[in-house]
Amino acid sequence: MSEEDALEYLLACAREEWVGLSTVAAVAEAKVGNDATFAETTSALLSVVGALIDHGAVPGDLVGESPGFVPWRGPKGQALARLACEIRVLGEIPSPAELCWIHDPSA
């Protein structure tokens, strides 16, 4: 699957439901390869999330009450900096349901 196809797939999923960051990480890992360092994989993950933001999707948190998804506030750079910080603190690429979800609220 090409990088563009992977991005379109993630965007389609984000329009229908919430996409876990681990799914986005899988696309990023495919982009950099199995031998990539943690820093390279993190950079690729932030690049994919940045591209998703550029296409209207946003990172956010799932909450128990309606509407169920709460987007992170602030501009793209702030969201990417927050995500980078949280990944660094976590010390590994996120697993399912960790850190944030991606959704296209315009869908």
What does this structure look like?
The chain is of the alpha+beta class. It has one domain (3-103): NMB0513-like (Orthogonal Bundle), CATH 1.10.3510. Helix content is 54%, strand content 12%. β2 (58-62) and β3 form a beta hairpin.
The average pLDDT value, as a whole number, equals: 92
Instruction: Give the strand line-up of the largest sheet.
Output: 1-4-2-3
Domains, number: 1
List unreliable stretches of 5+ residues: none
CATH class: Mainly Alpha
- End-to-end Cα distance, whole Å, is 24 Å
Number of helices, counting only DSSP H or I runs of 4 residues or more? 4
Main sheet specs: 4 strands, antiparallel
| Portion in helices | 40-55%
CATH topology: NMB0513-like
Order of helices and strands: HEHHEEHE
- Supply the CATH architecture: Orthogonal Bundle
User: Rough shape?
Assistant: globular
Q: Class by helix and strand content? A: alpha+beta
Radius of gyration: 13 Å
Work out the strand percent.
Answer: 5-15%
Total strands: the figure is 4
Throw out a few tags for this protein:
alpha+beta, 4 strands, 107 residues, four-stranded antiparallel sheet, NMB0513-like, 54% helix
Write the layout of secondary structure elements.
Elements: H1 3-16, E1 19-20, H2 21-32, H3 38-54, E2 58-62, E3 69-71, H4 76-90, E4 101-103
Helix pairs in contact: 1-2, 2-3, 3-4
